Amino acid sequence: MNKILKKRTLAPKVNEYVIEAPAVAKHAHPGQFIILRVDEEGERIPFTICDYDKEAGTVTILVQEVGYSTMKLASVPEGGYIADFVGPLGKPTDLTEYKNIVLVGGGIGSAVIYPQAKHLFSLGKPATIIVGARNKDLIMYEDEFRAAAKELYIATDDGSYGVKGFVTDVLKGLLDKGGIDCVMAVGPMPMMRAVSALTLNYGVKTVVSMNPIMVDGTGMCGGCRVTVGGKTRYACVDGPEFDGHEIDWQEAMQRLSAYRDQEKEHVCRLTGEKR
After folding, report:
1. pTM across the whole model
2. What pairing do the DSSP bridges indicate for beta strands 182-186 and 14-20?
3. Are 163 and 199 in a shared domain?
């Protein structure tokens, strides 16, 4: 079992958990993920490693309450325990070959670009960072990003903070100026698809972090398969990051919504709400 050392709410229904997991922290790198179970009867759910402290033996994850298991996790108090916390899984991100990098995070995707931002800053290669959300209340890690970024841009759909518009609006302005040789985008699939479509026009390398349905995290179940460059790849062992210009986005988005009705049913059972 793994102890929740710290728990805080960063946005409505978005919680940050600092988990005691020395074995995971020891081997963790930016871009990797973990799989946890809240209790012995719980489902296995993957989360990106948001931060880690090898000396303290802790791993930080950011979790949005969207379904049965994430709601169960939210009910575990600080100081409580979860049944399993396995990792690190997936391939680490390596952007060190690029000189002028833009990191784009949409909503909960901030959790994925944050460790990359810290890593690049530690190497003396701070990235330009764009963070977007529906409104000001959903912007996360602003102070942390500002401390690690070459430049930080914030965009909100409703204009309540930063630039009014989408992350692609800000990114287009930067691309028009030239000099960018890599973009890493993480967030909802429609956002990553839009970023990839935009950067394709400029011939800029684009990396995205895929979040398909996943069960075992070892490549055995095949649930997390995605089509990349016309070939089948598995997000858990071949990714989770891939070339955004080679993803079959239509297929990926269809697969992500395959069990939407069942997810709603489970939430209703947990909350007592009617469908």
Report:
1. 0.86
2. unpaired
3. yes
